Amino acid sequence: MSLRRAFVLACLLVLPGVLLRLGPHAHLLSTISESATISSGDETQQDDSVSTAAGVPRRLSQRPLFLLVLGFAVEVGMHAALIVILLRSVVLVSLFSALPRSGRMATVLFFGALMAGFLGGHDATYPFVTWRMYSGQPSADPTVCLVDGETRTGAAARIDMNGLLPALGPRRLHHIIKEQAEAMLTDGTTSPESARLRLRLQRTLLGVASLYNSRHPEDPLVRIRAALAIVPLDVTEPPWLRQQREVISIDLDPQV
Amino acid sequence: MTASTAMGAADDMKRAAAAAWWLGGLRAVIFSLWFVKFAGVSLSALASLPADLEPPLLLQAVPPWAWERLLRPPVLGPLQASICVLCVLAALGLRPYCPIAVAVASFVTFEQGLVRSYGYLNHPEIFLLLATWILAFSPAADGFSWQPSRSDLRPAPVYGAVIAFVALVGCWTYAAAGAYRIAHHGLEMFTSASMKHAVVLNSFAHGSGAVGAFLLEHPTVARWIQLALPAATVLEVASPLALRDHRFRRLWLGFLVTFQLLTALSMTIFFWESMLSLGAALIAFDRVTRRTA
């Protein structure tokens, strides 16, 4: 394929992603002095995760707008360059040329959706989503959520949340409880919203306790507790978990 | 028909059968991975959690009141059993393949979307899901199947194109992560302690904390790990080039396995589904392009 044709096709393939990414923030582009846009929803930086409800970021980055635009331009440019390089591959072009017309059309549409997801996707556009991992460092030290309890015999029980509900996939249960606990601590009022957050966390922990007790009927939990602790990155000796704050503690009826 | 034409046709047939076999093998790997994922867990346990869901757009067709009814063991149990049975049928390449594979793809899209409606979206199964949809609409049951179809084989490049597309999508998931990191946090890769943060957080939150404690005790090691990030990022961005050059493909397969094993050891993040499915796709691509070349 000629360089010019490859370039045009690459531009067409990244265009939906560019529109999807810029669309919700178009008003920001008109106000150069303002500096706000999407923060990085990141596999490892869940504190920066974006809201799934409306698909609109919950947090706004504080980086200058021109840096964000420049970064996005570089990102788009890298994708486009890779597409051009692959479209210039004789082997790949000959393989895809062998597909029937409908197959080629489906391939282009699928790849366009994939690129749109990479460049402008969010949680709501599943399964075409962004892939942002280990990108940048969050401003705060790592916060860890601890869920433990006490059993009927008085033994302390550390609850393995990955093993408790494998259907949810690793880490997700931990993340849900951590997010709910952080939201409760952040709110910290007696408002209806705070009561709602508390009830939500309570219901989740009751579900966790019920799962735990179904696996340990001989010594069920009589209390379950969620706490948050910080691991300061500048310490070089234990204790590693510091500033532990209990968020909620629930007494349970082991008969239930 | 001359002898050379007949030999050429026989060669084409042989190549087509080989390519169909490799595509069938990839199909068997992808659907077997789904089976392994579903057979080992109990979907019914999801009913223990409150149905405070934030479903993606694709699942928002389900009205909010219906979730309470769906998320019950009598619904989730049969759903899981159906997915397992269909995965086995698709892995074996039984006919009618396309409806079976589309049913698997639809079920797993729903189930994975459901799981992601609790909390947040992560990536381990996303490539596997995309590969499933691609294979569902391809002639992936023409070879390496319980009922192989020898009579209506397509030309070898058709099978090769499907394998190439699966591998391309898988490689691009790595390229996208790398491109975002370079474009938006290029300098931070060198100057920040992002890897220390990630390792410490994941080690204490999801593991024993031993690796995190080791890094905190040894800041120099943490610094070296940070410097490995730019190198890994360059290889991530270059991943689609594995489809262009077979020497780079081998190097990149080595990187894929090493990278995933190291993140599993250090951060308890193991994309084994992605590693196995993309590894299988790249090996199949390698074999098919060498045969058809």
Concise description?
Chain A is α+β, with helices and mostly antiparallel strands and 256 residues long.
Please explain how this structure is put together:
The complex is a heterodimer of chains A (256) and B (293). Chain A has helices at residues 3-22, 26-29, 65-87, 90-97, 101-120, 161-164, 172-187, 192-215; strands spanning 143-151, 156-158, 221-230, 242-251. Chain A has 256 residues and is of the alpha+beta class. Chain A has a 4-stranded antiparallel beta sheet. In chain A, helix 1 (3-22) runs antiparallel to helix 3 (65-87). Chain A starts with a helix and ends in a 5-residue tail after the last strand. Chain B is mainly alpha-helical and 293 residues long. Chain B has helices spanning 3-39, 64-70, 73-92, 97-116, 126-136, 156-185, 188-191, 194-206, 210-217, 219-237, 246-267, 272-292. The longest helix of chain B is centred in the first third of the chain and has 37 residues, at 3-39. The chains are: A alpha+beta (256), B mainly alpha (293). Chains A and B meet through helix 3, helix 4, helix 5, strand 1 and helix 7 of A and helix 4, helix 5, helix 6, helix 8 and helix 9 of B.
Based on the model shown, name its key terms.
heterodimer; A: 256 residues; alpha+beta; 4-stranded antiparallel sheet; 8 helices; 46% helix; B: 293 residues; mainly alpha; flat
Question: What is the topology?
Answer:
The complex is a heterodimer of chains A (256) and B (293).
Chain A: H1 3-22, H2 26-29, H3 65-87, H4 90-97, H5 101-120, E1 143-151, E2 156-158, H6 161-164, H7 172-187, H8 192-215, E3 221-230, E4 242-251
Helix pairs in contact in A: 1-3, 1-5, 7-8
Chain B: H1 3-39, H2 64-70, H3 73-92, H4 97-116, H5 126-136, H6 156-185, H7 188-191, H8 194-206, H9 210-217, H10 219-237, H11 246-267, H12 272-292
